[in-house]
Amino acid sequence: MAQKQSEKFKEAFLYHKEGKLTAARDMYMEILKSEPENSEVWDLLGVIYYQVRDYMEAELCIKKAISIHPEVYYFENLAKVYLQKGDFKLAIEFYEELTRDFPDNYEYWFNLAMAYKNNHEWEKSKQSYYKALELNPQSHESYFNLAYLCFNENRPFDAVECYKKALEVKPDDWESTYFLALAYMQTKNYEQGLKCFESRLCRHSAIVSQEKTYPNLMREKPMWTGKEDLSDKVLYTYYEAGFGDVLMFYRYMPQLTSMCKKVILKPQKELASLFRENSYGAEIMELYDFEKDVYFDYHIPFLSVPYALSLKGEDIFIHHDDGYLKANPAKINYYKERYFDNDKFKIGIKWQGNTYYDKERVLKVEDFFKLFELDNTQFYSCQTFEGAEEFDKIKAKYNVIDLGKTFSNFSDTAGAVENMDLVICNDTSLAHLAGAMKKPCWVLLPYIYNWRWHIDINHCDWYDSVTLFRQKNHGEWKSVFDEIEIKLMDIISKR
Fold it and tell me: What CATH superfamily is the domain 329-493?
């Protein structure tokens, strides 16, 4: 009987190694019917549940194994469960004990560093990564995560060095190259940053997106590298990323159209009408028009344009004396007649953009409340889509006009913004629109901010009319709004 059970265990373990998890699980459970005190099988069953992300069952099984026979690697597996489950304090407790007992184990130190990082214990995380690197100087993952911690402390120069070390270990890692690009650009090293930024096109998420959105691009036509003469050629360029990115890079359109026989741009549908009103001779496609129906000689992703133009140093910013986006006169008048016929200081606000990538930059609508009490001001909400429901908190207390519900596209938004004296918003597309229109705009940045805003400066290199206000501490907006209030009161008093 023992021999038979042993053979069954070997078979189950083989299934497990081969990735046949359902078959392995069923056989482990069968073994436990006759061997309920088999700690190894309980542990392996827990590992299977861990692999399929059923962390509750994984925890129960591994705890059962420990209760029968407390092997070290059972505790190790349980710590992994807690780390993936999000019970970071418990994971820390286990890994701290494991590193005390086994101080030369690289994996324990690395996972302890991960647990500290996820629990926002930045300094302890950093020291644990350093220890992991002492034990394994070829740990690409440790350098990569150390770079994240450098970003978290607003130390982009140190982040650059960490990513470079990660790439020494793993030269073909597109993720490291991409984040190195962001670090370079935050330090204003755009020559290296834009070069590395091209790696974004090789990331898995980008490839999937390209195949879905632009299925015909790569079939026949080459990508423009900047070396090819376009004077008698048609260039097709297409949006990437969010609205703000496309608005920011639209500054290059005048230069681009001057170089080409014709430029065709496919933006997001919300931007199409605004760009047609500011086309600079380019043809603006609709989002759902297909490349196969359009003739072009070369194509290029829109965010690759400054790299192809070989822009360096301050040339990257290309300033336009009167802004490079103008509002439609008819829409300016529409909003003026309906919403702006008053002599108050007119302020547009927005507190939230797309939260898919970054929730740190979201403001609380309540943070604006004390501004609404200032005399001789009229506030206008420009909030659309996600976050628009927060306006209910405003209308119950204050006379703020909700313009967001009137915006169907950015042409509408531009018409309203042109009537404003000031825009105050988080890091969102509205900031880029106001900056492109050369309208005064105050952008409120979290402690950890996007590469384009650079480091330790209040003015904005990209937009002459934009002023930056930055958190001094993680998550603390009060001091930022206190500064905003003082500046507003000063402006209003001088009118």
Answer: Glycogen Phosphorylase B; (3.40.50.2000)
